[in-house]
Amino acid sequence: KNPQPFHSTIMRDTSPLIEPEYLTDAIARETVTFIDANHKKPFFAYVPFNAVHTPIEATEKYQDRFPNEPNQTKRDYYAMTSALDDAVGAIVAAINKHGLADNTLVIFVNDNGGPIYTGVQSNGPLKLGKLFLFEGGIRVPMVFKLPGTFEPNTEYDEPTSTLDLFPTMCGVVGIELPAEINLDGVDLTPFIKGKISGLPHDTLFWSNGPNIAVRHGDWKLVKSYDSTWLFNLASDIGESKNLAKSEPEIVEQLESLYHKWRSHMVEPA
């Protein structure tokens, strides 16, 4: 609808275009077309849907699925989610149509928790949501599907990261990465299958402007400007009890880990 320069222009390679179809449907359509054209050879499809995301809008086709929801914003949100479900289903159906289900790794992952500022979303029992480094903002779904490699209904509860996606994909398809490549991510396959015990990551870090977070075992440190929070996620997944004052040694330990990690980061140009 009336695309504005720089904000809603859609590009095909280097050329802008105006897409008349609902964008979630259009992205699915293009992905299915790509699979149809490339199914006879190995392919990689990165499909970054912009749904569910503001602006909260949906077509009547999907809104009509929720006739009993009186709140229009909620109805739009539910409709967008339903559209995304259809879109993912269309892509999976294309994979199945070409007989590729048994040797195609499908990954579904989100980039952040739901934005509570929309007034229609909740990440409960997790704290807050998008824009925050509490669990409601950073604990998201990561789903793998590959028959024969990942058994159905398998759950893995240890902390992972999207940094692990690339090495996991390489591991699944049998690509041995050069030893000189020092990646932050790891191949999750042996961990999920129980062939390797322990944690994929001793420590995970987040940094977003003045906000930082450190996850080390069950402990999680969050800092924003002059505020400090410390939580034990094993007993407090909702991050309701701040232990920073009662556990200063843990705070110091996690701060030290963060500064050591940060010292290796290269400032953006």
UniProtKB/TrEMBL annotation:
All residue ranges annotated as the Sulfatase N-terminal domain in the record: 14-175
UniProt feature coiled coil, ranges: none
Annotated InterPro entries: Alkaline_phosphatase_core_sf, Sulfatase, Sulfatase_N
Molecular function terms from GO: arylsulfatase activity
Pfam families with a match to the protein in the record: Sulfatase
Annotated SUPFAM superfamilies: Alkaline phosphatase-like
Family: Belongs to the sulfatase family.
Protein name, as recorded: Sulfatase N-terminal domain-containing protein
Protein species of origin: marine sediment metagenome
